[in-house]
Each structure stands twice: as C-alpha cells, then as structure tokens.
Amino acid sequence: MITAIVLIKTSVDRIPEIAETVAALDGVSEVYSVTGTYDLIALVRVARHEDLAEVIPGRISKVEGVEFTETHIAFRTYSQHDLEAAFAIGLDA
Asked: Where does the Transcription regulator AsnC/Lrp ligand binding domain start and stop, copy by copy (predicted)?
C-alpha cells in the first residue's frame, strides 16, 4: 500500500464542502481541516504508484475550489497506535 500526504489549498469560504467532496473520492482515506498555509490535508492510499496520478491530479485537483496541492509520498509508517494494535492481536482484554 502506498500512502501519500496531500496538502491542499482551497477557497477558504468553501472548506467544509471541499473537504467532504475530497473525502468521498476513491483512494482518499482521510481528510483533515488544519491551520497554517494549507487548508486541508488528505491521506491517499493506493496499491500502485500509477494510481496516485488518477487520484491526485485526476480527482483531487479537479474538485471545484481546490486551488493547488503539494504531495508527499510516505516511505514508512511509524505509528504507536498501529504498533499497539499489532501486539494486541489475539489477546483478550
């Protein structure tokens, strides 16, 4: 699984609607409204690198109100939550 973090600049007056539209797109797993230079951060998860082109410039960038995006590809995931869940598999609480 390939994960991309997509920073999205939008029309400020339409952030909630744009966020909902982006979140509904195939390949987008989560969308966060954030402070700072960008208005939204989307997590894109796809099977192949080629699929990123379909999701990011092919879908996200075409959402009305998206002004521009900046994409970062994740090399590895380091998540305490994921590690704890992996070690808890099969154990009764």
From this structure: 6-77
Whether residue 44 contacts residue 4, with contact meaning beta carbons closer than 8 Å, is answered with yes
73 CB-side CA count, 13 A:
12
- 36-51 tens-digit pLDDT: 999 999 999 999 999 9
Return d(Cα 61, Cα 46) in angstroms, integer: 17
Structure tokens at 82: 């994921």
Degrees to nearest 5, angle at CA 55 with 51 and 58: 110
Return phi, psi of residue 2, to 5°.
-105, 130
What's the pTM value of the predicted model, to 2 decimals?
0.83
